[in-house]
């Protein structure tokens, strides 16, 4: 036991700064405390990164279809054919790839369902296979809560907070004392002994992935802790939760707009109750005029909760090809109501909208998912290589 405690401490070296010495102690202690949780977080993050791709693969016979001809069934025809089968179309997802099937949402026997739909043949290909969903639910529960509910969630949050400190202290420890040692911190000496290779892997890979791992960790904290969410929103120019509560009584009440919107929708329900609905094809045409670019398009039809058509197009027409949602709404008769472009939102709302895809890597599709997978895999290795460094130190003391 004495040896164990001795391995957790060392005297400050000659010419070693106090900051570097404190960082070394923090890096060692927090690393040992959180290594197992961080390993689990990174491993489950790696697995969950490919959720959509694996789900598509397990439904490949329904997702990917042969392009029989260039002509597809239009939305109105799809709605009419479903109606003949006592199915009420409630939503439609149109992909931007011709070899991929539509996804339809419909109501049948008072139940809401969804299914893949072959837009060339008019065949309903079946509901999604949910076998992989259960696996990913377990992975997600492990990632968020260690499968221990709120207690696990707090443990995960504390471990991620420690991981952020580890990354910062690791960067301080990585900084070479002299410029001539810089190359040593950027490369791995593969021909050296195992202990040296292990040290280099911890040191070098930690440096290369520092920014991305720190970003992933912070967005994870954003999801876990309200105070982190509040702090980030305020730092990006938004109002804190406390201020929003105070502003509720002012004329600039941020909820006033929502209330007005709700009242307008109530009026629409009442005034347009007996009006004929615009066709879905007309709505798509009007939406394309407002958002004139090809993209994955989601259409939600009017329902009891929302009397408007809601069209969301995923805009990738930007420098990095990020998937940014733009939304337009129309009333039941096709009169334009609102247009909400992602680029027009304030920075704090943009971050709020993208927090999840930024954390999971979905923000730029498959390329960013692969990048996140590699970075998370390296994140898995850091607790292992770090533990081995400490274990080697402990063995040397015997």
Could you explain the architecture of this structure?
The protein is an alpha+beta fold and 398 residues long. The chain is built from 16 helices and eight strands. An eight-stranded antiparallel beta sheet has the order 4-3-2-1-5-6-7-8. α7 packs across α9 (194-208). It is elongated.
Spell out the key features of this protein:
398 residues, alpha+beta, 8-stranded antiparallel beta sheet, 16 helices, 12% strand, elongated
Query: How far apart are the termini?
Result: 12 Å
Give the strand order of the largest sheet, numbering strands 1, 2, ... along the chain.
4-3-2-1-5-6-7-8
Care to count the β-strands? 8
Largest sheet composition: 8 strands, antiparallel
- Given the helix and strand composition, which structural class is it? alpha+beta
How much strand?
5-15%
Shape descriptor = elongated
What is this structure's SSE topology?
Blueprint: H1 2-7, H2 18-49, H3 51-58, H4 60-63, H5 75-84, E1 88-94, E2 102-108, E3 111-117, E4 124-126, H6 131-145, H7 149-174, H8 182-186, H9 194-208, H10 210-224, H11 226-235, H12 241-247, H13 256-271, H14 280-290, E5 297-300, E6 309-315, E7 324-330, E8 336-340, H15 347-360, H16 366-397
Antiparallel strand pairs: 1-2, 1-5, 2-3, 3-4, 5-6, 6-7, 7-8
Helix pairs in contact: 2-6, 2-7, 2-16, 3-6, 6-7, 7-9, 7-10, 9-16, 10-11, 10-15, 11-15
């Amino acid at each position: 036991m004495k040896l164990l405690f001795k391995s957790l401490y060392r005297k400050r070296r000659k010419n070693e700064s106090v900051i570097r010495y404190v960082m070394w102690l923090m890096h060692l202690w927090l690393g040992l405390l959180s290594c197992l949780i961080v390993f689990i977080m990174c491993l489950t993050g790696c697995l969950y990164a490919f959720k959509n791709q694996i789900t598509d693969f397990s439904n490949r016979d329904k997702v990917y279809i042969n392009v029989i001809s260039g002509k597809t069934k239009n939305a109105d025809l799809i709605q009419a054919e479903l109606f003949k089968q006592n199915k009420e179309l409630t939503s439609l997802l149109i992909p931007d790839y011709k070899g991929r099937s539509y996804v339809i949402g419909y109501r049948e026997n008072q139940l809401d369902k969804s299914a893949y739909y072959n837009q060339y043949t008019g065949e309903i290909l079946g509901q999604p296979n949910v076998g992989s969903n259960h696996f990913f639910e377990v992975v997600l529960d492990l990632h968020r809560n260690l499968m221990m509910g709120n207690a696990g969630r707090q443990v995960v949050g504390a471990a991620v907070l420690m991981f952020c400190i580890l990354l910062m202290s690791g960067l301080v420890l990585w900084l070479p004392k002299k410029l001539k040692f810089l190359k040593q911190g950027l490369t791995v000496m593969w021909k050296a002994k195992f202990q040296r290779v292990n040290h280099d892997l911890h040191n070098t890979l930690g440096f290369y992935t520092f920014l991305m791992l720190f970003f992933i960790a912070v967005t994870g904290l954003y999801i876990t802790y309200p105070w982190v969410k509040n702090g980030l929103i305020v730092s990006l120019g938004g109002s804190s939760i406390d201020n929003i509560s105070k502003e509720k009584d002012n004329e600039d009440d941020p909820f006033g707009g929502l209330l007005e919107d709700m009242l307008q929708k109530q009026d629409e329900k009442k005034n347009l109750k007996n009006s004929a609905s615009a066709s879905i094809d007309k709505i798509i045409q009007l939406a394309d005029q407002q958002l004139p670019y090809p993209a994955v398009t989601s259409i939600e039809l009017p329902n009891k909760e929302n009397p408007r058509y809601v069209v969301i197009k995923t805009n990738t027409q930007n420098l990095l090809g990020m998937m940014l949602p733009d939304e337009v709404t129309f009333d039941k008769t096709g009169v334009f109501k609102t247009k909400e472009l992602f680029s027009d939102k304030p920075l704090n709302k943009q971050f709020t909208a993208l927090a999840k895809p930024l954390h999971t890597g979905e923000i730029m599709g498959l390329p960013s998912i692969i990048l996140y997978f590699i970075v998370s895999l390296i994140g898995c290795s850091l607790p292992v290589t770090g533990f081995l460094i400490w274990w080697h130190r402990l063995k040397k003391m015997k």
